[in-house]
Amino acid sequence: MSGQQDMAGVDIGGSGVRCAVVRDEKVGRIERSYLRSRSVSSVVEAVASVVPNSAVLVGVGVPGFVRQGRVLSSPNFPEWRDVALRERLEHRLGRPVQVLNDANAACVGAWRQRSERSVLMLTLGTGVGGGAIQNGVLQLGGRHTGSELGHIYVGGDAPCGCGSTGCLETWASTVGLMRAAEACGHPIVDGAALVDHVHNGERWALDVLSEANTALARGLVSLVNLYAPDVVLLAGGLAQPGLWDDACKTFAQRVIACNRCEIEVLGAADGLAIVGAAYWANQQVNS
Asked: With b meaning 16 or more CB within 10 Å and e meaning fewer, what string describes 65-96?
């Protein structure tokens, strides 16, 4: 990515928008705008309020199923259906815009900052997202909606926001942990609350976390046997040291030996989607 021109990376979340200028994969000052509502027009205006005039192009990461600039649907924005987000933003901003799934963007951002050619990432937060880069190429599939790694089936019949059941997201996300805790009679407000109960040694919380680790291990084994990456990265609010040790141990035991690789826990890694979205926009516009 050339340092001669400013590129803006935007990360859209359920409650707000974050944006920063990216130069040579380095994130500048992050500007934030909170959403008045989750309507398309509100999100477009929020993005417009934080994108600097100096940015010649804009990359946007959005939580949803994205195909060639259109958001087909989004668990965070349930009323969105086949939204032409790239077109709307280009009209509003007057410059080129590229739109990518936010977890895919985070994967691209992490890859740009590393030496490995092939990277697999899972983002563990409110939901479970992910991305896979093989030999420097983001894997999106023939329909451009691939690498939805949080929606592989790992067991159970709990409903998922994607419309299916038994997805990895129904186990190893904040939503999944809240569901499992409520099912055993201990409702919690978020994933951090479960971690507190785990640290207190409460049996029910340890059982919930154990089930989540089993699900994550199943997902990791399947994904690594499919993609054979150089490294697996775990990022997001639930990517905390020690929380997924059992999943990593089970993965190491059950993955095909020649595909075994390191699993790194990155923590929140908030700037990765911004870097990845900006790089993706630059690559798409200049390729």
From this structure: bbeebbbebbbbbeebeebebbebbbeebeeb
